[in-house]
Amino acid sequence: MTIITVCYNASKTIANTITSVISQDYENLEYMVIDGKSSDNSLEIINQYQDGISQLISEPDKGMYDALNKGIQMATGEIVGMLNADDFYVDEHVVSDMVQAMSSGPGYESGYADLYYVDNKNTDKVIRKWKSGRYKREKFKQGWMPPHPTFFLRKEAYEKYGDFNLDFRSAADYELMLRMLYKHQLKAAYLPRTIVKMRLGGMSNASLLNRLKANREDRKAWKINDLKPGPLTLTFKPLRKLMQYL
Q1: How far is residue 228's CA from residue 246's CA, in Å, rounded to a whole number?
Q2: What's the pTM?
Q3: How crowded is residue 125: how many other Cβ atoms within 10 Å of its Cβ?
Q4: Which sequence spans correspond to the domains of the chain?
Q5: What is d(CA 148, CA 177) in angstroms, rounded to the nearest whole number?
Q6: What are the tens digits of pLDDT across the range 178-232?
Q7: Among 3.90.550.10, 3.30.70.1170, 3.40.50.300, 2.30.42.10, what is the CATH number of 2-243?
Q8: CA distance 91 to 25
Q9: What angle do CA 69, 162, 36 make, to 5 degrees?
Q10: In angstroms, rounded to a whole number, what is the distance separating the alpha carbons of residues 24 and 95?
Q11: Mind listing the pLDDT tens digit for each residue in 99-158?
């Protein structure tokens, strides 16, 4: 198992992310941190945990997805997961539980779980609950997607079907999961519990303008994969986010 964290000027949160990974009870864990040449003291903080980090890279990149692709290409684990620098695992059993879920039946090439959006300062305060539910392929046409920070994929799937498409600014995660799960119909295991807390925010949700841009990228994700969304797919997708506040 490989976990990849990418960061850039994340000094306020990176320690929380790292400790949540290195405290996992799964023994065969490779942990990679890809830093985009931070100008704050992120690297100084990261180096305090070097005993728990398998590989650290600090160099300029073309953004989050470019950094993730670097990690994917170097990963040696059979399964690859990602945890961003403002997210953290809820307990020490997350990785072992996901490995068990993906081993619970034949042919599971991916896995995902539930996620909480939490307050930036008080991470015990849950703002939004993302309960994924069991995967059915047709759900994508209803605006469904798994929460990306909970998404795990076998390395061989990346090797066969490609990694993140850098033509996308904010929806590369959606395009990748659409490509893997819907287009290539990879089998997905659902772990029915919350495994990640994500601090509220994010590029695609920061403003109405960004949400409109993200919606255009969602449409592009279907088009470049030669897929046709349903008539209300791109309307249902943001509405699903609103329902998570209830």
Answers
A1: 30
A2: 0.91
A3: 12
A4: 2-243
A5: 8
A6: 999 999 999 999 999 999 999 986 544 444 456 566 788 999 999 999 999 888 7
A7: 3.90.550.10
A8: 9
A9: 10
A10: 7
A11: 999 998 889 999 999 999 999 989 999 999 999 999 999 889 988 999 999 999 999 999
